[in-house]
Amino acid sequence: MRIAIIDESAARASIIQEGLATLEDCELFVITDRRGLLARVAEFDPDIVLMDLGNPSRDVLEEYFVVSRALQRPIAMFVDESDDEAIVASVDAGVSSYVVDGLAPNRIRPILDLAVTRFNAFSRLQRDLADAKGKLAERDTIDSAKRILMDTRGFPEPKAYAEMRKAAMNQGKRIVEIAEAIVTAHNLMGGA
Question: Is 71 in the same domain as 138?
Fold first, then answer.
């Protein structure tokens, strides 16, 4: 497992390293300079990112949120103090675990595990949502194609669907591909 530790303080970064000392097959990469941060993290290509920001200003916090959004990795962020706005912004930025005043070696591993678990759960939800949206879009396309066949050919709805299904089977395609072709052809022929 590759873990990036981002902390401008080498002393605080060592606390995180101490908390990860018991992990086997773990490669750590410590970044203490904010310049070129996103490129440096991307170059290391970590599985997990741990950020210790201490008591960051709003600008520094937003800079790290930009990194969080771009990485698409489990991220645990440690801060000394926080407010509701920062917490909401961190969740929106994709931070998996936002820990206030909790930097201690014995807490690092459970926080890391939580960040990974939450990231995986959120990723599953996003995939499920994308699948559902895709299926709805396919259903809309099929319904549009059925309406076109019903209007132009005078088919009842079951017959329109049966004709598309038959064409899909004959051509070895999915029914949505046939529906897309019908909608495209109708639009090219000046259909509304």
Answer: no
